[in-house]
Amino acid sequence: MFLLRLIIPDRPGSLGVVATALGEVDADIHAIEIVEHRRENGTAVDDIVVDLPPGVLPDRLVSACNSVPDVEVIWFSRYGAGGGLHMDLEAVEQMTSAPADAIDILVEQSPAVLHADWAALLDGTGSEVKVALETSATPEFGDVASGWLPMEKATTLEAPDHKGLAESVLVAAPLESDRRVLVIGRRGGPEFLGSEVARLSYLASLAVTIRATS
Fold first, then answer.
1. Could you say which residues form the signal peptide (predicted)?
2. Cβ(203)–Cβ(106) under 8 Å?
3. Within the chain, which residues score under 70 in pLDDT?
4. Which of 81, 7, 89, 82 is nearest to 40 (CA)?
5. φ, ψ for residue 64 (rounded to 5)?
6. Residue 80 confidence (pLDDT)
7. Residue 62 and which of 42, 124, 153, 179 are 20 to 30 A apart at CA?
8. How distant is the alpha carbon of residue 186 from its chain centre?
9. Residues 84-109: tens digit of each pLDDT
10. CATH number of the domain at 2-78, please?
11. How do residues 147-165 score in pLDDT, each as one tens digit?
C-alpha cells in the first residue's frame, strides 16, 4: 500500500486523468481525499492511497502521475495505516462510543487520521513535562518538550536538533489545558498543511467536549 500526495489542477476531470494514468500501471486506488484547495493558484492537494500487484515497481506510480500535465508529486511513501483515508469519522465514532476514553482514543488514532508515524500526549501540569501516552515509534523528547509549553492553539512545530526528532515534521494541539499537548510527527515529511492543522484543532476540541460528557 502506498500514499501519494499530489498537486493537481483544481478543475473537473483532473482526478479522472490521474486515475487513468495510475490504472495504466495496474495500480488499484483504494481512497482519494482532497486535503486542501489552493484557490489562489487554481490547484488542489490530494492524497491517493493505492496498492500494486506483485512485480510492479513503486517508482511507476510516480512516473504515471508525472506523465499527467500540470500534476506534481510532492510526497510518496509506503502507507501502513490500513488504506483508509476517512479516518476522522471513525475516530469520532470511537470517541463517542467511549466518552471517558475520548482523549486516549484521539492520541491512538491521530497517526492514522493525519498519515503520520507517531503521536504522544505530553503533560506539563507538574514540575516537569512527562509523556502521558504515546503510540509505537514515538521518539524520546528529552528536554525539548518544555519549550513547546504553554500552547494556546493547534500549530506546527519546528523540529529541534535532537536525536529522533531532527528529521521529523511536527504538529501539535492542546488538550484540556495549555500544558497538556498532543504532538504528532512524520518522519521526513511532507509538511503539515494548514487544513491538517485545522482538522487536528477540531478533533482535539471535540475529544475534550466528548470526554466532558462522560
1. none
2. yes
3. 79-87
4. 7
5. -65, -45
6. 55
7. 42
8. 8
9. 446 677 888 899 999 999 999 999 99
10. 3.30.70.260
11. 999 999 999 998 888 777 8
Residue-level pLDDT at 70: 95
Q: Cα 183–83–13 angle (5° rounding)?
A: 105
pLDDT of res. 60: 94
What cell does 69 get?
500535465
- pTM of the prediction? 0.71
- C-beta separation of 123 from 130 below 8 A: yes
Domain boundaries, the chain: 2-78, 86-212
pLDDT of residue 186: 92
CB 190 within 8 A of CB 131: no
Cell triple for 145: 518538550
Work out the angle between the directed axes of helices 87-97 and 194-212 (0-180°, nearest 10). Answer: 10
CA distance linking residue 48 with residue 83, whole number of Å: 10
| Cell output for 1 | 500500500
